[in-house]
């Protein structure tokens, strides 16, 4: 299954279309973004960063009231117990996914056991992300995805061997997706850029340049600030048909949101809609 990530376009319109096309749900970075998605009919949302601040817990409870399935990434015991208390007091249950990017291997089983014994939360599964960071990584992104997926699956199996259910094994990343999917036991791919793709992924061989679905006008190169891939820091854009394709789409989405710049949706050469990027961060 694929879970779309809001980070690459920041629009509820496209996220809803991705779910309608078969995505199991959406990943976000804030409870507010989750509630925005609930308002357009998305029912399954995961906050894909292990925020630790206690002031966020009531916000998560509010999102859980509005969504059929709501989960958050975690990497420490205090978040599990504190979130559990807040959720139980409000009469909701929130899923937690142990984020292996930030959790030492020796702590994973401890956190799984704690979740199992804490009211208000349930163990949704384990998750991780290891995207290409260097030119060497991108040479064989499929192998990178496969190796990371094997680590995730082995961790999930160790939790299950302890008698704890671990239903989701989630690997992140568009370029590493095919490698991850070759590993038995991966249940979900969280992919951000697959909705629009970008010039950096085309240069790496993940897609064709003609498949990149988002561009900016030549006189708005300012929107492409910081839009380079980590493995190619000098390339922020590629010219095509009088417009500029982003080297990395995620920073472009942030720039559009911050500048309140609309996305003009074109189909068959005609403008069919205009979308305003959202995905606001949570505030204390």
Element order: H for helix, E for strand? EHEHEHEHEHEHHEHEHEEEHEE
Q: What is the CATH topology descriptor of the largest domain?
A: TIM Barrel
Regarding CATH, which class of the largest domain?
Alpha Beta
| Known CATH architecture of the largest domain | Alpha-Beta Barrel
The number of strands is 13
- Rg: 19 Å
- Total helix count? 10
Helicity range of the residues? 25-40%
Assembly state (oligomeric): single chain
What's the gist of this structure?
The protein is of the alpha/beta class. Helices cover 35% and strands 22% of the residues.
Key traits:
284 residues; alpha/beta; TIM Barrel; 2 domains; 8-stranded parallel β-barrel; 3-stranded antiparallel sheet; 10 helices
Would you give an account of this structure?
The protein is α/β, with parallel strands linked by helices and 284 residues long. It has 2 domains: 2-195, Alpha-Beta Barrel (TIM Barrel), CATH 3.20.20.10; 199-275, no CATH class. 35% of the residues lie in helices and 22% in strands. The protein is built from 10 helices and 13 strands. The longest helix is centred in the middle third of the chain and has 21 residues, at 141-161.
How would you summarize the topology of this molecule?
Layout lengths: L1 E4 L6 H9 L4 E4 L2 H8 L5 E4 L9 H10 L2 E6 L2 H14 L3 E6 L5 H12 L4 E8 L6 H5 L1 H21 L6 E5 L4 H5 L6 E4 L7 H6 L11 E2 L19 E4 L2 E4 L2 H10 L4 E5 L2 E6 L9
Parallel strand pairs: 1-2, 1-8, 2-3, 3-4, 4-5, 5-6, 6-7, 7-8
Antiparallel strand pairs: 9-11, 10-11, 12-13
């Amino acid at each position: 299954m694929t879970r779309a990530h809001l980070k690459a376009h920041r629009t509820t319109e496209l996220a809803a279309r991705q779910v309608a096309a078969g995505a199991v749900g959406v990943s976000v970075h804030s409870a507010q973004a989750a509630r925005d998605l609930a308002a357009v009919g998305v029912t399954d949302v995961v906050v894909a960063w292990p925020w630790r601040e206690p002031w966020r817990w009531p916000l998560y409870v509010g999102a859980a009231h509005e969504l059929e399935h709501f989960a958050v990434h975690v990497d420490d015991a205090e978040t599990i117990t504190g979130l559990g208390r807040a959720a139980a007091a409000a009469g909701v249950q929130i899923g937690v996914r142990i984020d292996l990017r930030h959790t030492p291997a020796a702590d994973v089983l401890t956190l799984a056991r704690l979740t199992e014994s804490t009211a208000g939360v349930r163990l949704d599964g384990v998750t991780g992300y290891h995207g290409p960071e260097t030119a060497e990584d991108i040479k064989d992104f499929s192998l990178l995805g496969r190796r990371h997926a094997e680590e995730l699956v082995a961790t999930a199996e160790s939790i299950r061997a302890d008698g704890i259910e671990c239903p989701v094994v989630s690997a992140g990343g568009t370029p590493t997706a095919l490698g991850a999917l070759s590993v038995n036991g991966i249940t979900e791919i969280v992919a951000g850029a697959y909705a629009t793709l970008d010039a950096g992924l085309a240069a790496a061989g993940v897609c064709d340049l003609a498949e990149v679905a988002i561009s900016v006008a030549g006189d708005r190169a300012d929107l492409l600030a910081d839009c380079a891939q980590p493995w190619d820091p000098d390339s922020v854009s590629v010219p095509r048909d009088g417009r500029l394709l982003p080297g990395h789409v995620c920073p472009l989405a942030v720039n559009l949101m911050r500048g309140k710049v609309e996305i003009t949706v074109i189909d068959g050469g005609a403008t069919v809609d205009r979308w305003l990027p959202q995905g606001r961060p949570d505030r204390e």
